[in-house]
Amino acid sequence: MSSFSPKSLIPRIGPEGLVVLVIVLAFGFLVTVLGPELEFSGELVDNAAALKLVGEQQSNPTIIRASLETLHDQESVDQVRDAAKKLDTALPIVNAPRQASWFALTGDGGATAEPIAGKHAAELGRLWASERAALKPVLEYTGVPYDDSESAGTALNQSGRQLDRDVAAAIRTSHHALPLLESELVAITGELQTTNARVAKQLRLVMLVGLAIAGLLVVLITVLLNARRRLDGNLQLARQQTTDILRTVKDGLFLLDQNLNIGTAYSAALETLFQRTDFGGLAFRENTGHRLEIRRDPLVGADQ
After folding, report:
1. Which of 10, 58, 82, 248 has its CA 20 to 30 A from that of 31?
2. Residue 8's CB: how many other CB atoms inside 10 A?
3. Range 6-227 classified under CATH 1.20.1330
4. Is 261 helix (H, G, I), strand (E, B) or coil?
């Protein structure tokens, strides 16, 4: 049984074959290593952005609750509006389905990934919808809640008393909904951090595998090139030895190809015998056959 070795493989692989082999190995490296590496890197970037977005919203429920409980001027109303606006902008993004990863798309062209909120999306939407409905009259209030008079001084007017009732209703709702909303945001943050740690671990593993494959590729290519170089050296040495022999031999030696044409390797004595130097590629019978003595062997009936 013959054993496999790069030296035995090289004669079957020419320069073009080596180029094709390197291209195939490089393509395999791209598919098996760089593809997943880019995917995991992109997931880390997306999760980092999602973590930042969710983290920025964690303080808004507390701001809304504190501003409602101390609502006494336009500044407090503006704080509630600002916090509610941020949640109005962020929560649809958090609850929206994200684009599926490359691995999911390879199996299903219409696949989508779960939203940033994950399993908390439904509860998060329900809690904020309840709180948002309670806040709506407060956020839409644009009147002046007080009337000033010389006799009665400053007192709540009709719109002010309605605002006071709306604020009291919003506070009652916020005592229930906002702590739960804040807990959901904290839970989402924790899950995103856990996912980031898992993806980072997978990315490190893929990078290590990539380094190992790259090292194997370098070793393989180096072995192949060195074996090819040794083979070329041996071939060059054999050619040089053949040239030396043909240059010094006294007989007219030459090789014929399958079409009976004289090859490029022939002895120097052949030029002396036939008084010409352009033998390479000449048809043997047409150019030199008539100068040779042809003898037929009676036993085998063949020309000698």
Report:
1. 10
2. 11
3. yes
4. strand
